[in-house]
Design goal:
mainly alpha
Length: 112
């Protein structure tokens, strides 16, 4: 299945994520797309989704926007390397990266 990237530049990032055609995919297709685009394993996918839910982002579409924005942030900060199949956060690194992402998002450095 051919997928097209939905983020083309920093200035268009938020608008493109919010209007991404992938947000409304059934759960398994959304996960498969995330796996293909970001090298995300299922456990990490569910952990991120649950973390945002516990943070208070209850609406599934909003959570998916946050999830995609977070994955773009993680990818841009070097968490996904070409020589690895999956994105790697290290022991305890996922929660650290999620908190860091939310902090810079709240500080309007990385707006969704």
């Amino acid at each position: 299945m051919q997928t097209k990237p939905f983020i083309t530049s920093v200035s268009k990032k938020a608008a493109n994520i919010k209007h991404s055609e992938y947000l409304n995919l059934p759960n398994v297709r959304f996960y498969n797309w995330c796996r293909e685009q970001y090298g995300l394993n299922k456990g990490v996918f569910h952990t991120i989704d649950d973390w945002f839910y516990e943070y208070g982002i209850v609406n599934i579409l909003s959570r998916r926007v946050y999830l995609l924005a977070f994955l773009e942030y993680a990818k841009a900060s070097g968490m996904k390397q070409e020589d690895h199949k999956f994105i790697r956060f290290g022991n305890g690194g996922l929660v650290v990266k999620l908190r860091e992402f939310l902090q810079i998002q709240e500080d309007e450095v990385y707006m969704i």
